[in-house]
Amino acid sequence: MTDAHVEPQWASRLRDIADFPKPGILFKDIMPLLADGDDFRAAIQAMSARWRDLRLDAVVGIESRGFILGAAMALELGVGFVPVRKPGKLPGKVLREEYTLEYRSDCIEVHADALPAGARVAIIDDVLATGGTLVAALSLVRRLGVDVVGAGVLVELDGLGGRGRWEAGLPLHTELVY
Ligand code: AMP
What we know:
Helices cover 25% and strands 32% of the residues. The protein is of the alpha/beta class. Bound molecules: adenosine monophosphate. Adenosine monophosphate binds next to strand 2, strand 7 and helix 4.
């Protein structure tokens, strides 16, 4: 018997929290997954496998859960890690990009000297919802002159239009779709 849609064992560690951070939002909580060593490692290995042969120079992680997944992936892949942060957190000269989230407007920043032009990077976050964050991160890091090879998220929330906002033809890997 084969079933291409069998979920990995670690998927059972994701938890739905209703009405967080505000009414109407079904929050996908990855904390129980992070708390289990074997399942956390399995999830990181699955996300990393997508990029293993693509000669990345760095993983770009989006604050804050993208830091956890992205930094673990960077170690797994043997490459560097660059944080994309909420405003006012990075100490050096920054580039800034504004965007709209599923539940609020915000902006993100990256150090202007974070990566050399031409560096090959993948952008990592935990959840793809409307796609606003990932698309903003794409335009932000491209202003550094880097080569964005694609993006990866653990969970894609289908029906919020995120994938449709992502650049056609640019890889967007998601491990689980709900
Ligand atoms: P979006 O820009 O709408 O794709 O939202 C993605 C960002 O917001 C990611 O950084 C997620 O961590 C967070 N996020 C948005 N919606 C959810 C959700 N339903 N559950 C968990 N995280 C979410």
